[in-house]
Design brief:
The complex is a heterodimer. Chain A contains 5 helices and 23 strands. By secondary structure, chain A is mostly beta strands. In chain A, a hairpin with a 3-residue loop joins strand 5 and strand 6. The longest helix of chain A has 16 residues. The radius of gyration of chain A is 22 Å and the shape is globular. Chain B is an alpha+beta fold. Chain B is built from 4 helices and 7 strands; from the N terminus they run ααββββααβββ. Chain B has a 7-stranded antiparallel β-sheet with strand order 1-2-3-4-7-6-5. The longest helix of chain B is centred in the first third of the chain and has 16 residues. The chains are: A mainly beta, B alpha+beta.
């Protein structure tokens, strides 16, 4: 619906804009030239570069040297993640010699980034980034698993989380974090002393030590550094059948209300708190919740409360004898609310198929609702960046 | 920084009033080790079922340690904040078995570890993490880990 509208609009405007070249003739053989900035990036749910990822949303990202933006590398198999901020690339997937970020004393800067189920350790490098027709210049990004930074500080390993520092553990060649904030850490990381959470490290020859890191030097959301279409993104994915789909094709659209193809329309805005959470009501209780394409299932409740046994071979997933239907209510900080109806199938049965996209894959998560990628199937979900204006008000918010 | 200094005398008073520190499975005295490690402020709250020791790190993560009145040991720990705290410190000698189990999980989402004698749940995203760890065999009667504040 939205796409056919766009085509109509373009067809109407292009000849007048005079940028269609010879294609602007009235022969009925018109080709459609992209709008001022092409803001749609193809994304796909597929098994990813390991061939075994389930409910992973992948795309390609082009990185270029800041000093020479014709010296570029396109990296495929990059996971699209609304639950994090910033581009992170496996060192093993990167052939371009990106320049190292350093502090005033010329010490290289590195980062220990925490994800929900793992951490990424590695240096901060500077890249120009191209996605669809959008470009961001001199963006701090993280390189993961860099052999030149092989000593991981104990402050980084002390959570017990898995090191997601290679293709097998990360399951992707990189992560494109297009979440709710312009930076991955924010104001806390600019502070000195014990008020600093200790995520960034300065690494002189003597070893890495925790350091304060300015807002602009932190790993940035590439979207907020685009010259335009920089206030957020839409993830557009079709529904998946109950038995799963081999793959799903969709779009990552940049900007909210900035072009004809990214208006909020009837989407309902759910503002988040300062940490990026909304809430979800279920069974008389309210849970912290968030919408996260980087989580690969609907993670909610405990086995007893949900009435769903976990799988005997994988306690991260539910394995009911037959599918079970649920309804929960999402609530935004702005008072918006809406029911979410979903179903949970037997994960073992789903995994026995050759499919990679499952709308009804779920697992336990007793104290929060983690609305992973299945939530996005059949919805257009907007993620608006904090501090940026949109026709639906300023970010941070989710809308769908 | 300023707040830390202001709170320090209170923290000292509180810790003097305690039987002494807390790491999971260890005596209440071990809370002081955690507090020192996190450079946090401490608040203690007693109830019939347990004594709650709340450590607030200057960077915003709040750790709560629950001490059983019968054993005098820490039977549960919860955390919430912008960064997952140092679980090697907080879980003590339970850390290794937790970390081993964490490496073998499947999926990409919250971490739910259920071992005989140890449960660890960890969830969230950049800027917002929460979790809890407890020893099922050490839970005071009538107390459910899921219901701990």
């Amino acid at each position: 619906m939205r796409k056919s509208l766009l085509v109509l609009l373009l067809a109407a405007f292009l000849p007048a804009a005079g940028c269609g070249g010879s294609s602007g003739s009235a022969s009925g053989n018109n080709t459609i030239t992209p709008p001022t900035t092409q803001n749609v990036q193809a994304v796909s749910v597929n098994p990813g570069p390991t061939g075994s990822y389930v409910n992973g949303l992948f795309t390609s990202v082009t990185v270029c040297l800041p000093s020479n933006s014709s010296d570029c590398q396109t990296i495929s198999g990059v996971l699209v993640d609304t639950g994090s901020v910033g581009l992170r690339i496996l060192a093993s997937a990167l052939t371009l010699p990106l320049p190292q970020q350093t502090n005033a004393a010329a010490a290289p800067i590195a980062e220990c980034n925490q994800f929900e189920d793992g951490y990424t350790w590695g240096p901060i490098k500077i890249a120009n980034i191209q996605v669809a027709g959008e470009q961001a210049a001199s963006v701090p990004v993280q390189v993961i698993g860099d052999p030149a930074f092989s000593t991981v500080p104990s402050g980084c390993t002390s959570t017990g989380l898995t090191a997601e520092d290679n293709l097998q553990t990360l399951g992707a060649n990189g992560v494109l974090g297009v979440g709710l904030f312009p930076q991955d850490c924010g104001g806390a990381c600019t502070l000195t002393g014990s008020a600093n959470p200790g995520i960034y490290y300065a690494c002189p020859k003597s070893g890495c030590v925790q350091t304060a890191q300015g807002m602009a030097q932190q790993v940035q959301n590439p979207v907020s550094m685009f010259p335009a279409d920089n206030n957020g993104v839409i993830i557009e994915l079709p529904l998946a059948p109950s038995g799963g789909a081999l793959s799903l094709a969709g779009s990552l659209v940049f900007g909210i209300g900035t072009q004809a193809n990214n208006s909020l329309g009837n989407a309902r805005v759910f503002t988040t708190d300062a940490s990026g959470n909304i809430s979800t009501a279920y069974g008389g209780h309210s849970y912290t919740s968030f919408l996260d394409t980087g989580s690969n299932a609907l993670y909610f409740l405990d086995s007893t409360t949900a009435g769903l046994p976990v799988c005997t071979d994988a306690s991260s997933f539910y394995c009911p004898a037959s599918s079970k239907i649920f309804s929960a209510t999402n609530q935004g900080g702005n008072g918006a609310s809406g029911a979410v109806n979903f179903s949970v199938a037997n994960a073992d049965s789903l995994f026995a198929t050759p499919n990679s996209a499952f709308i009804n894959l779920a697992g336990p998560n007793p104290s929060t609702f983690d609305w992973g990628l299945p939530f996005f199937y059949g919805r257009n979900v907007f993620t608006a960046i904090a501090g940026q204006n949109t026709p639906g008000g300023p970010g941070p918010f989710f809308a769908y | 920084m300023k707040r830390f200094l202001l709170m320090l005398p209170l923290a000292v008073l509180m810790s003097l009033a305690l039987p002494a520190g807390a790491v999971l499975g260890e005596a209440a005295q071990s809370v002081q080790k955690d507090q020192a490690h996190m450079r946090g402020t401490l608040r203690v709250q007693r109830s019939q079922a347990y004594t709650l020791h709340e450590i607030r790190a200057p960077y915003g993560t709040v750790v709560r340690e629950y001490v059983s009145p019968s054993s005098g040991n820490v039977f549960a720990i919860t955390w919430k904040g912008p960064k997952i705290p140092d679980l090697r410190q907080l879980l003590g000698h339970y850390f290794d078995q937790y970390a081993r189990a964490a490496q073998s999980r499947r999926g990409h989402g919250p971490l739910i570890i259920e071992l005989p004698g140890l449960v660890v749940q960890s969830a969230g995203h950049q800027r917002s993490f929460s979790g809890r760890a407890w020893l099922p065999q050490e839970m005071p009667q009538g107390t459910r880990a899921e219901k701990l504040p």
